[in-house]
Amino acid sequence: MSKPYPVITTVGPEPEVICRELPEAVFDYPFFNEGVTSVGGGERFSLDSWSGEEEESLEISGFIFGVSHCGSTLLSRQLNQLDTVRVVSEPEAINGLLLSKVLYALDDQSVADQLKNIVRMYRQAEGGKRHLVVKLTSWNIFLMPIFRRAFPGVRWIFLDRETESLLASLQRSDGGFIDWWNHPTPLTPRAFLGEGADFADKEAYLRAMVLGHREQARIHQDSTALFLQYPEFLHQFDAILRHLGLAASPDEMARAKATLRYDAKSMKRLPWKG
């Protein structure tokens, strides 16, 4: 059975959340919008025009934040092995809303309200799911005050990695905040690091962004947070489940462990090469 889920949010002074009717299989992909493209679905429509009835909602078990290239996709794939858990990975509907906030200085409360509406749609019960975990794009940590306003008391995880190995990985890659250096846009690093931010080269920029991610997480660290380090957290799945209030059967634990052998960012079972 298909249900309406947010797929994008237009970036502008009046962001509009766009939905499509999609099957549960869309959440099986490493990234939600990859699933949207691959699985397909119904016609697009504005969330504002949706008049569906309120249904039983999944419990929001937690949010996953992290510095880029720190294993967050792998963790989300592990959690997706639990039959009662739906994981939404880096949804562009949230990214578009938060970009609108940054670029157009939108009111915090209005953005928080829209964020709640987006997540509310992802909470629709289907297929025996009871819990929702949302894995965010790394730079979303800079908008943590919006998440705390919208979802006070919800648990969250912050994943990190040793600095030099992280920077080496980022230098070899593109996407996310790396593209803001490679392909400058109106969304400059200064939007996150301050008007005085200036960088001699790409490495200096990446280092500043990594430190900025960590500082934002540290500012908001409290009893709802669990800070973990890659690759050590790969052996701490039990602690992660406890923090999120989740339980796994022996079979689910075995499936979660098996995901460590494969490339987390591919739907094909490609062996992980390290």
Give the gist of this structure.
With 274 residues, this protein is an alpha/beta fold. It has helices at 32-39, 72-79, 92-104, 108-122, 144-150, 163-171, 179-182, 190-193, 202-219, 237-244, 250-258, and strands at residues 3-9, 17-22, 45-46, 59-66, 85-89, 131-135, 156-161, 225-230.
List the helices and strands and how they pair.
Blueprint: E1 3-9, E2 17-22, H1 32-39, E3 45-46, E4 59-66, H2 72-79, E5 85-89, H3 92-104, H4 108-122, E6 131-135, H5 144-150, E7 156-161, H6 163-171, H7 179-182, H8 190-193, H9 202-219, E8 225-230, H10 237-244, H11 250-258
Parallel strand pairs: 4-6, 4-7, 5-6, 7-8
Antiparallel strand pairs: 1-2, 2-3
Helix pairs in contact: 3-4, 4-5, 6-9
Describe it.
- By secondary structure, this protein is of the alpha/beta class.
- The protein has helices at 32-39, 72-79, 92-104, 108-122, 144-150, 163-171, 179-182, 190-193, 202-219, 237-244, 250-258, and strands at 3-9, 17-22, 45-46, 59-66, 85-89, 131-135, 156-161, 225-230.
- The strands form two sheets. Strands 5-6-4-7-8 form a five-stranded parallel β-sheet, sandwiched between helices.
- Helix 4 (108-122) crosses helix 5 (144-150).
- The model has no long low-confidence stretch (mean pLDDT 93).
What is the CATH class?
Answer: Alpha Beta
Biggest sheet: strands side by side, in what order? 5-6-4-7-8
Helical fraction equals: 25-40%
The fraction of residues in strands falls at: 15-25%
User: Roughly what is the average pLDDT, rounded to an integer?
Assistant: 93
Question: What structural class should be given to the helix and strand makeup?
Answer: alpha/beta
